[in-house]
Amino acid sequence: MQQFVNLxxxxxxxxxxxxAFALALVLIWRSTRIVNFAQGAMGxxxxxxxxxxxxxxxxxxxxxxVALLAGLVIGAVIERVVIRPVEGGPELNAVIVTLxxxxxxxxxxxxxxGVNQRAFVAPFSTIGFKAGDFTxxxxxNTVFTLGxxxxxxxxxxxxxxxxxxxxxMRASAFGQEVARLLGVRVGRMLTLGxxxxxxxxxxxxxxxxxxxxxxxxxxMDSLIVFGFVAAVLGGLDSPIGAVVGGLLLGLALSYVxxxxxxxxxxxxxxxxxxxxxxxxxxxLFSTTQTRRA
Length: 293
What we know:
There is one protein chain. Helix 6 packs across helix 8 (186-212). The chain is globular. A hairpin with a 2-residue loop joins strand 2 and strand 3. The chain has a two-stranded antiparallel sheet. A two-stranded antiparallel ribbon has the order 2-3. It is an all-alpha fold. It contains 11 helices and 4 strands, in the order H-H-H-H-E-E-E-H-H-H-H-E-H-H-H.
């Protein structure tokens, strides 16, 4: 029973980490209709910026604030300088560019901060709560992670459902010419979408670093895969789906790791992705209906 409880709690915690990254993918997809495969590398870069400030004597919260601001600027600059020239062409062009960005940003991190692993101290205790005679796989820091993910989810829902800016961002993503005729500044909306997605990605990087207790130039690589699976599982158009998808994926992989074998985790994630694409391609929370001829 104790193993099941800890596997479940561990799955929820890991799922929250996947959900944090999936939320960044959902945000940029809803605002630009692009899957940004450089999101993990961008989050890793801002996490290293935060770590450098923390190691220099600044508080965790100062490092977090600077990382989020850096993410905002980096996202806006990348959209303006790198993505904007290929936005009018085939959709595959933008995807290829994000893959190139992923490699380039990882190389930049190695040059600026080195290739070795570095410790990252969590803002709260990572010691699990006590429940009778055993220790739960749930700590004050994981509660903070869960709360941050839920807060971001609520913020994205409010942005896209209840604000004119969110509506303008979605209109720019779906039909740029129509949006321009309605007076929407499409260029600014696309830049804003990339900037906000980079902020969410920066937050996910710092949350992940605090949970794993270390960072390296490639520390977000596996999260890119699992976060993408979580986003597809829940639906790339749904912030709620990203969180639910992340939690479901975290639970499933935790049970596979605990009851079967750790080496089967990657295969299990692939099977989940294939099943979802075959049964419900839009994701569990998709509301878009496909018209058939």
